[in-house]
Amino acid sequence: MNQSTASIPPAPQTIRFVLARTSHPGNIGAAARAIRTMGFWRLVLVAPQRYPDPQVTAMAAGADDVLANTATAASVREAVADCERVYGLSARRRGVNLPELDPRAAVAGIAPLLRQGKEVALLFGNERSGLDNDELSVCHAMIRIPSVEDFSSLNLAQAVQLMAWELRMASLGEIPAPPAARDEPATADQMERFFEHLFATLHDIDFHKGRSATTIEQRLRRLFHRAMPDARELRILHGVLADAERMARLAKGQGGGS
Question: How far is the C-alpha of 36 from the C-alpha of 21, rounded, in Å?
Fold first, then answer.
């Protein structure tokens, strides 16, 4: 990610607000203002359509320290690669089978992670289309704001403000942190490399037998995100997959020689 060094961040933070493919620059500035009012400053932009732009500064209304430290990334996966938890804000399910939480329930799980120093991302999609399936696929859970059915769409900065406020209230409530896990859960980047290996292996052993792999891959993503493996466990799984690939190559070789 690219990041300005114009000013020093006010304090270490492990929560980041990630805006994907933002189309209106004013929403970037308004989001910066929204998180600044709640004491946050880590804003990451993924492929914004117009940035930098004078409307960003205008709508930030003085949240210059947030803008000075705003990072940019070419993809969502790059933006969250070092995160242990990624939560996607979406009003649309889009066929991706993820656990669904309301903001308060999500923050109840996020707050203890932040107290342990875990890297966590809140991912917000494009104003018109929201998060697409590829972006949701990196998420561990989806947060749905329980708005009314006949007018359910929130402005992007409003959604950012709501989540920042919930996080602020949780921090003021002094919720005690649970004991730290013995081993750190795998990061989003480590999980993505495992999924790539897993799906390639399933293809090599002809697991799908000509059928569409999409549903199975989505279910496997959900399974392993729910399991929260650590890096050591992923290395074991990589080893299992490597042996499966080796046996598949041997079987193909024997078949070709008969």
Answer: 21
What does the pLDDT look like over 50-60, one tens digit per residue? 999 999 999 99
The token pair at 144 is 């749905």
pLDDT in tens, 97-141: 889 999 999 999 999 999 999 999 999 999 999 999 999 999 999
Q: How far apart are CA 146 and CA 103, in angstroms?
A: 9
15-20 and 120-124 strand pairing: parallel
Q: What residue type is 5 in one-letter code?
A: T
Which residues make Cβ contacts (< 8 Å) with residue 35, sequence separation at least 6?
Answer: 17, 41, 42, 43, 63, 66, 160, 161, 164
> What confidence score (pLDDT) does residue 58 get?
98
Give the Å distances, CA to CA, from 48 to 2, 137, 139, 182, 217: 13, 20, 20, 38, 29
What DSSP string runs through 130-181?
B--HHHHTT-SEEE-----TTS-PPPHHHHHHHHHHHHHHHHHTTPPPPPPP
Other CB atoms closer than 10 Å to residue 251's CB: what's the count?
11
Q: Give the separation between CA 164 and CA 21, rounded to whole angstroms.
A: 20
